[in-house]
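Check the record.
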Amino acid sequence: MRLIAATILVFSLSACAPVWLKPGADQQDFNVDNSACVAQGYRSLPPAVTQVPSSHGDLPPRYVMPDSPRVDHNAKARNQLYRECMASHGWALQQK
């Protein structure tokens, strides 16, 4: 029963996933524009990754554990740049 519920959840979530659409474009057109926009984003805003300091009580303040989560501080701005680039190539993000 849990497997059925999990399967339904996965399919219902994927049905709502946004997709890039462009009239007259095919998968190859998307791949070309997608690659160009991803590359532009990383050229303009390279990853600025830092580790999140631990707040564990028995460690010194601001101690960064080796397995602490990493945060890319440019990810949000890079994503916005990517969306703008795709839009400039004629793509529109639509809900499925």
